[in-house]
Amino acid sequence: MSYLDFGALAKTPLTKQPFDYVIVPNFVKPEAFRKVVSDFPDVPGAGSHPPAELKIRGHFAELIKELHGDAFRKAVEEKFDIDLSGRPTMYTVRGFLRKKDGSIHTDSTTKIITVLLYLNEDWDFDGGRLRLLNNGTDLEDYVTEVPPVNGTLLVFRRSDNSWHGHKPYEGRRRAIQFNWVTEAKVVTKEQSRHRLSTRLKKIKSFFLPSAA
Ligand SMILES: O=C(O)CCC(=O)C(=O)O
Ligand SMILES: [Fe+2]
């Protein structure tokens, strides 16, 4: 049985201003959400971790498999009127935010589509809610704010004005970022860049568990 609510994605219209995006609350179905969260991998601190450095298993692995499946690709292709066949994918896992996270950016030009999936049970904080912005300078000038909860899906088309960011938050915050990118060497380069910092964090958390 599918963990993802493709029907809800199909029903949600694409928003085109200030850039192309779609937000689907409960995209991870409520009955699957709890299972996926319970199998969320241990991550050695903040930042983006490549799956090769983590133990991806159980219901979390099933969810990841679905994100890589034809049904999800076709749904995104249809929504964004884009051909993603032959475009490589990559993903990273995040378990914590640092105070410095959330600064305004558009994502790198090698990303075509960015998918964010939020796996927190509740969120009573002002920080850590991703804002989709009208410009690259003012975090208060936003069109929408995404609470990082309950398997909420955000998909956007990267562009020169796909500005996004959030107010600072420090602590636990589970999310997956999944991308379709321009070419295979992007995947190798990005994943190896993250791999080094994940490995350093593993060493640090071994010696200083509370500092992770
Ligand atoms: O965690 C989020 O809500 C967004 C993160 C982000 O924009 C990024 O890592 O590129
Ligand atoms: Fe981003």
From TrEMBL:
Q: Which UniProt keywords apply?
A: Iron, Metal-binding, Oxidoreductase
Q: Does the keyword Metal-binding apply?
A: yes
Question: Which residue intervals define the domain Fe2OG dioxygenase in the entry?
Answer: 29-183
Organism of derivation: Microvirga terricola
Supply the Pfam families for this chain: 2OG-FeII_Oxy_3 (PF13640)
Q: What is the lineage of its organism?
A: Bacteria, Pseudomonadati, Pseudomonadota, Alphaproteobacteria, Hyphomicrobiales
Q: Does Ribonucleoprotein appear among the keywords?
A: no
- Family recorded in the similarity comment: Belongs to the iron/ascorbate-dependent oxidoreductase family.
Q: Note the superkingdom of the native organism.
A: Bacteria
Q: What is this protein called?
A: 2OG-Fe(II) oxygenase
Q: Which InterPro entries match?
A: Oxoglu/Fe-dep_dioxygenase_dom, Pro_4_hyd_alph_FE2OG_OXY
